[in-house]
Each structure stands twice: as structure tokens, then as C-alpha cells.
Amino acid sequence: MPFRAFRVEKTEDGRFVRSIVEREVVDLPEGELLIDVAWSSLNYKDALSAIGNPGVTRSFPHTPGIDAAGTVVESASPDFSPGDAVIVCGFDLGMGTPGGFGQRIRVPAGWAVAMPDGLDARSSMILGTAGFTAALSVDKLEAAGMTPDGGPVVVTGATGGVGSVAVMLLAKLGYDVHAVTGKASRHDFLRGLGASTILSREEALEGANKPLLRPKWGGAVDTVGGPILFNVIKALRYDASVAACGLVASPEIPATVFPFILRGVNLLGIDSVVPPLERKREIWNRLAGPWMLDLEALVVPLTLDTLSEAIDRILAGEMAGRGVVDLNG
Prior knowledge:
Blueprint (H helix, E strand, L loop, with lengths): L2 E8 L5 E8 L9 E10 L1 H7 L16 E9 L9 E5 L14 E4 L4 E3 L6 H23 L9 E3 L5 H12 L4 E5 L5 H7 L3 E4 H4 L14 E4 L3 H9 L6 E4 L13 H6 L2 E4 L7 H12 L10 E5 L3 H9 L6 E5 L3
Parallel strand pairs: 8-9, 8-11, 9-10, 11-12, 12-13, 14-15
Antiparallel strand pairs: 1-2, 3-4, 3-6, 3-15, 4-5, 5-7
Helix pairs in contact: 1-9, 2-3, 2-8
């Protein structure tokens, strides 16, 4: 039975062309689970795949979509049965393997997590990889000693998918959240998510030429990298930590060792692609339970037919919140 999919093809002259096509299940790669995808979400990595970024996708034609939620149609695994609701995020989905922007995917059973009680396909994709990454970041920061009474927590790139969920989650947990954004029109949006203070990109870059800044932050979630990340590091309080989970500004940081050897601060790396499956289950169960958030204010509704325009917007830095894709819309 044919299904619809968003497809990116590379032309002979090196351009990347997007379209909606009909595919057959027999065209999908081998895998223990065939899944009927109901919802997906749009991430920055998906947009990079759609423009042929070789750090994300090297083989075309290709269907992006690093997130997928739906129902098992066929299973060759004892861990899942037809009819089971599942989440698939990360691993190679949407990078080298046809992803969640198609109505069917076939994947290894080890990539899937059973849908936890409290979430459904749509709500899990409002979170998606972005929400999962935000939760991983907060969890690792708290494991490193971050507490609400340890000082304000700063979130960079705060209007993006990871940043906006991080702001909401930290506020829910009782933190004083300061949000960094280059979008002046989104200040009220961020305050509505729970941020007490909004900083411009220029303010976040003040003192970039100094080896240390006044200690201010009790913790941080950084989604942008580059000079802003190192400015955050330079302003961490003694023994505080920053979780680094993005590189929208730059994959490089102009760093010295001074904050690390004079204040004992910590730079924590966050990988949401291939953490152990049990770790994924733990975080998803937390998001379905004590860390559950009302994320409707973040939703930007999308369908396969509106994806291409949304990809252009996210690449231009013009999308705030979470693009949530209805595969049957």
C-alpha cells in the first residue's frame, strides 16, 4: 500500500529539491518494526538534512524527520506487537534512514520506546527531540548539583525548540530563568513560558574580550555554541555547570582554561541521539509524569504540504516554538 512522504532529491547540478511523493513499503530499509507514523516534529537538524548538509545526510534521495510517533504495524521483535504505540527519536532516523516525514518507517526495535502513560503521539511530538534534549540537559545539570537556590539559570537560543521547552521546564521546577534571544518581538512569548528576565544577544556577548566575568549563573542550558557559550561559562558561579546541546551560532568556542581552574565550573555535553535505551525510557517517563508540561503555546501546526516553507523559516531563524507535523493532515 502506498504512503506519502516528504522527499529531498539532489539534482545533477547539485541543487536539493523538495517534493511530496508516494512510496511503497517495499522501498523501506530492513528493520524489525514497521510503524504507521501519525505525528512528527520539525527540528533544525531536519532543515539541515533538507538542504543537503553532509554532516547530517550524505545519501539522496532522502526523507528527513528525526522524530516519529505512531503505531506498530508489523513486528519481528518480542518487545513489540502490532498496535503498540511507540516513539522513535534519534539514532539514524531521518539522517541516513528514511525518517518521520513519511507516513511509514521501518526501523530496528532498539530504536523504539513504548509510549509512556500520560503521552500520546501528538503530545510526544510536541516534545520530540527538542523536548527530550531539554529534559536531558536539566537532568544532567541537577545531577551535577544545580538547585533552584543556587542562582539564576540562563537559557540561550530561548525561542527555539530546545530553548523554549527548557525555559518552561526550569520555571516549572522553581528556577529563576533568564532567557537569551535575538528576537525582540518574542519577549512576551518567553515571559509567558516562565522567563523572569530577557537578555538580548548583544547583552549576552558583553565582555567577550575578558577572561572572566562577574559570577552570576547558577546553571545554564546553551543551544547556540560560539562566543555566547563561552561568555556563559565565564559568568558561571563557583562549581556551577552549563549543558551544551547545540551549535546554531557556531560549533567553536573561543575558550581559555581560566573559568575551569579558577572557579571549578563544568561544561556538560548533551547527546540526545544515541543515549542508552533505558536512559531514553527514563527521561520520557519523567516527561510523561512529574515533568509534564502544557506545551500548546509552543505549537506551530504543520503538515507534509507546509513543511518546505517551515524549513525555510527555521533556517532563517524565524520560527519560535515547536513545529508539529500531522502526517495525515
